[in-house]
Amino acid sequence: MRKNSLWLPLAGFLVYVFLYAPLLIVVAFSFNDSRLNSQWVGFTLEWYRVLLHHEAMLQAAGNSLLIALVASAVSTVLGTMAGFAMYRFRLRVLPLLVLAPIAIPEILTGVSLLLFFVLLGMTLGMVSIILSHIAFCLGFVAIVVRSRLAGMDESLTEAARDLGATPWCAFRRVTLPLIMPGVVAGALMAFTLSIDDFVITFFTAGVGASTLPLQIYTMVKTSVTPEVNAISSLLMLLTLVLILVASKLSPSALRSGA
Amino acid sequence: MSAAWRASLQRFLITGPPLVYLLLFFGIPTLIMVLASLRLPGEFGGLAPLWETGPSGTELNLSLESYGRFFSDSLYAWLFFKSFLYALVTAVACLLLAYPLALLIARSPGKRRDLLVLLVILPFWSNFLIRVYAWMIILGPESVLTRTLNALLAGLGIAPVELLFTPFAVLVGLVYVHLPFMVLPLFANLEKHDPALLDAAQDLGAGAWSRFWRVTFPLSLPGVYAGTALVFIPAFGIFAIPDLLGGTQGIMIGNVIKQQFLDTRDWPFGSVLSMVLTVGALALAGLAALFGRRTRV
């Protein structure tokens, strides 16, 4: 047995500190009784109280929630179909269209959708944001569902068919329940991706609608206020819960996103 | 209804909806951007009409003018080169930070390994803007880090420095945001290494240093290439990080694309820049795939 040297755990630990310290600092300052993000003064819940009366922020949060709900619902249905199709059939175009939006820099998807909507004569706003979010969430759901299908025992569906089930019935009563954890994990991922998206939303929102990330961007760009720490901490908490649930349902789901 | 006909109907019903959606909201927009890069800028921004009917009949308004502008002005080539450098330094820094971490995770026992992987992924899923914003706090002029550093520099008789709104801040942000993209493919590769190889190398007299450089590292090259591509490509086109952390010094090509579309509203030129970015990103992805394949043989 080789002796484990100490430098590896130490280096690893330092990288974890690098990953987590910035986020913990944001959370800590959200409870700090000072308008400046420079040193600890004392504990307060003031910034969370301010949030409750921040009209623009509440409006943006409502928009984000609505967008994420609609976009994740539609992209889950379409993404499950795409994942199933990619698993079952030998396709060329669909896998390319599913993977390309994930592979290229986000800004390209953002600006091409901007061109598309404007040339169609659409007013940018909630609808254009939702349509764009579905387009980039779909692929993530498809990948998760496909990997779930790949781990499934094919003979179960075949058995159902042998026992006289129609293809649709076999899918609904056998395949779908078996891949359900993957579908739900995909839906949670789509919801998280949508509620967190900044770049594509930035280009497709126009002046008509704001979302939480857009609102945070505006506030951070103009002047950093402690309310940003509070809303950031709440958003992190929400993401954390969603992602932990998704990872319980489908351990492979998270890695496909990164 | 014949079985074959039924099977192709089934295939059509399952494949059709996602295919149509992605063609409509990804395929066509991409083609529109390709076309827009060949069009003329409109009088008040945006695009000039695609065709015009004059006395000599209808003619298409297409030209390579915007491409010409891109290739004649070295400023844009310089911006691409600068973004390339930022992305390259980011990839190298991510590799240096990610390698020991990935190695540590790959050599941990099962239960702990899952936890350590989850701990790498969790910050990745928190909001991108918040992760950038956190560095605005840490590197800000009044932060503990900046003040401590400047106090130390003052002790050495060196003038105080600023950390925020510098190329350094952009690099820190880029590395921070993209680190998980490097850790995960590296870990996925290192996890599969057979420990017996290291035992064999040791039995043959290889020290720790030579075991790493002659066994572990060469075997991990596919993971290194995959991680480098996954970090490099998104870092190349990013605009929010230089926008928030870079100030006027740290502009990257993504900022200019954003500016062309939203501020200057010269869409043909913005599309040209986007096209060059697309081609660059695809070329790098292809290169990474090629390297990855060669090392696997």
Summary tags:
heterodimer; A: 258 residues; MetI-like fold; 78% helix; globular; B: 297 residues; mainly alpha; two-stranded antiparallel ribbon; 2 strands; 75% helix; 3% strand
Structure description:
- The complex is a heterodimer of chains A (258) and B (297).
- Chain A contains 12 helices and no strands.
- Chain A is mainly α.
- Chain A has one domain: MetI-like (MetI-like fold), CATH 1.10.3720.10.
- In chain A, helix 4 packs across helix 6 and helix 6 crosses helix 8 (167-196).
- The model of chain A has no long low-confidence stretch (mean pLDDT 84).
- In chain B, strand 1 and strand 2 form a beta hairpin.
- In chain B, 75% of the residues lie in helices and 3% in strands.
- Chain B has a two-stranded antiparallel sheet with strand order 1-2.
- Chain B is globular, with a radius of gyration of 25 Å.
- Chain B is mainly alpha-helical.
- At the A-B interface, helix 1, helix 3, helix 4, helix 5 and helix 6 of A face helix 1, helix 3, helix 4, helix 5 and helix 7 of B.
Low-confidence stretches of chain A: none
CATH topology of chain B: MetI-like fold
Query: What is the total domain count of chain B?
Result: 1
Q: Distance between the terminal alpha carbons of chain B, to the nearest Å? A: 48 Å
Radius of gyration of chain B: 25 Å
Structural class of chain B: mainly alpha
Shape of chain A: globular
Task: State the separation between the terminal residues of chain A, measured CA to CA.
Answer: 34 Å
Largest sheet: number of strands, sense, barrel closure of chain A:
none
Question: What percent of the residues of chain B sit in helical stretches (DSSP H or I)?
Answer: over 70%
Q: Report the oligomer.
A: heterodimer
